[in-house]
Amino acid sequence: MRSIRLIARLDIKGPNLIKGIHLEGLRVIGAPNEYALRYYQQGADELIYMDIVASLYGRNSLGEIVQQAAQDVFVPITVGGGIRSVDDATRLLRCGADKVAVNTAAVANPGLISDIARRFGSQCMVLSIEAKQIAPDRWEAYTDNGRERTGLDVIEWVKRGVALGAGEILLTSVDKEGTRKGFDLPLLHAVTSEVGVPVIASGGMGHPEHLVEAVQQGQADAVAMADILHYGRATVGDIRASARKAGVDVRVYEPV
Amino acid sequence: MSRCDVVIIDYGMGNLLSVRRGLEHCGASVVVTTDPDEILSATRVVLPGVGAFADGMAELRRNGLDVAVRELAGKGTPLLGICLGMQMLLDESEEFGRTLGLGLIPGRVVPVPSVGIDGLRQKIPHIGWNGLVLPEGRKCWGNTLLHAVVPGEAAYFVHSFMASPTSREHSLANCLYGGQPVTAAIGRGNIVGCQFHPEKSGEVGLKILRAFCAS
Fold first, then answer.
1. What residue segments make up the domains of chain B, in order of their start?
2. Rounded Cα–Cα distance for residues A12 and A56 (Å)
3. What is the average pLDDT score of chain A?
4. How confident is the model at residue A256 (pLDDT cuts 50, 70, 90)?
5. Nearest to A123 among B25, B127, B178 (CB)
6. B174 near B182, Cβ under 8 Å?
7. Could you give the domains of chain A?
8. What is the rounded distance in angstroms from the CA atom of residue A253 to the CA atom of residue A237?
9. What integer pLDDT is reported at residue A45 of this predicted model?
10. Which tens digit of pLDDT belongs to each residue from B28-52?
């Protein structure tokens, strides 16, 4: 069967790897590519780079960072933040990205999802969704790192995004993000039961056990991890080993 | 590791940066070119590619690269096809109607099975890491580009169609998707094709690229 992917997520502001809580209160962690290389060597299945202030300032400075990472990292790389056009996507793919993640610009112009999918294939088009709970079993999609409401119901938006050509969903719970308290399992379950494309759970991973819950209860196809790795509370290898022990199918990987 | 020359064929299908970096990481000096003469004089050639089969073949033909690839394959130059580049090594594809391929390895390109052996629907495209296994009838990967790979080690796949070689002897490696065998690698003499992306498959992929550079 398909292995559950362990993804290291690197939130970037300017030249720095940063981490916040609820996508706010950002702290500088260090140089992004030192961490990227470390996670690659630990056996991360993929990397995600998110320029978390790009859409706020209408810019994208990630190209250089990704280009440098692609020199030494030989696993798939997803890049998001501030992608507003097919040209923006093209530029990042040329820098070595394999997929692009789009949130704000897709909300403003859903046709962008189709444009990117038609040009590069659905497998390349990741719809990034920042979800905040507004009522029991109801979530609203936010943009600009949990700052701006969209009025969109997360489940409806996911279904529409997939119909338009999104090949994967990066689902970040703003409520859980940076809390280390585990993923928003009802949110995950609600989304994975509605769509046939892979869903990446993001926000809240504080312990390897949280991954097991996301997969077994939330039906996640992949798990994005940041805080737990950045602060060295566990390595990708530790997480892989405990996932396997708990019966989660993960890639066979022996560090060199 | 000694340096080697690898030519990557650029026919406008997909990002070549990662393939180039992967080969360089393995000690190769790499040239990316659209020039048939440069391709014909190469020591080793990589045919990469992402996208639709018909578009890929049309682009190759438009630049006269199909003739160059057949000629270099015929004279024994090591040739590695990756993803779409692997599928084009075969006789023909069923993707969006019938399209002729390069005909270097007998066989066809067919859809990835969309139903698992349990009868459940599989997600298509097949995206992600999947373990490489020996196909029925093959005992080991000795003397192939996969000689350093341990069966079960995973590689990274992104595809909706797959190779179906006519002869079992040309089947190098499979993976299992929903319990169904999916062709992962094919080979015939100096010609090898990988459905997965060795340049995105971490150390396992690099082992294969290293073996190619030493071939």
1. 4-213
2. 13
3. 92
4. low
5. B127
6. yes
7. 5-245 (3.20.20.70)
8. 9
9. 97
10. 999 999 999 999 999 999 999 888 8
Query: Distance between CA B68 and CA B54 in Å, rounded?
Result: 18
B1: pLDDT strictly greater than 50? no
Interfacial residues of B (vs A; Cβ cutoff 8 Å): 15, 17-18, 21-22, 25, 50-51, 121, 123, 125-131, 152-154, 156, 158, 176-178, 199-203, 205-206
Run of H or E residues at A222: strand A222-225
CA distance A148 to A55: 11
Q: What letter does residue B97 receive in the DSSP assignment?
A: S
Cβ(B73)–Cβ(B47) below 8 Å: no
Number of H helices, E strands in chain B: 6, 13
pLDDT given at position B16: 86
**Cα(B92)–Cα(B103) distance, rounded to whole angstroms?**
7
In degrees rounded to 5, what are phi and psi of residue B149?
-85, 135
Look up the pTM and report it.
Answer: 0.92
Neighbours of A29 (CB within 10 A): 19
Amino acid at B89: L
- Angle subtended by helix axes B65-74 and B53-62, to nearest 10: 90
Q: Which chain A residue's Cα is nearest to B159?
A: A123
**What homologous superfamily does CATH list for B4-213?**
Class I glutamine amidotransferase (GATase) domain (3.40.50.880)
B38 is catalytic: no
| Pair A6, A44: CB distance under 8 Å | yes
3-state helix, strand, coil in chain B (%, to 5): 25, 35, 40
Q: Would the CB atoms of B200 and A168 count as touching at under 8 Å?
A: no
Nearest CA in chain A to B182: A1
Which of B152, B178, B202 is facing A75, going by the closest CB pair? B202
Q: Where are the beta strands (DSSP E) in A5-161?
A: 5-13, 16-21, 24-30, 46-51, 77-80, 99-102, 125-135, 138-143, 148-153
In sequence order, the 6+-apart residues with CB closer than 8 A to the CB of A34 are: none
Q: For residue B13, what pLDDT band results from cuts at 50, 70 and 90? A: confident
Q: Cβ contacts (< 8 Å) between A64 and chain B: which residues?
A: none
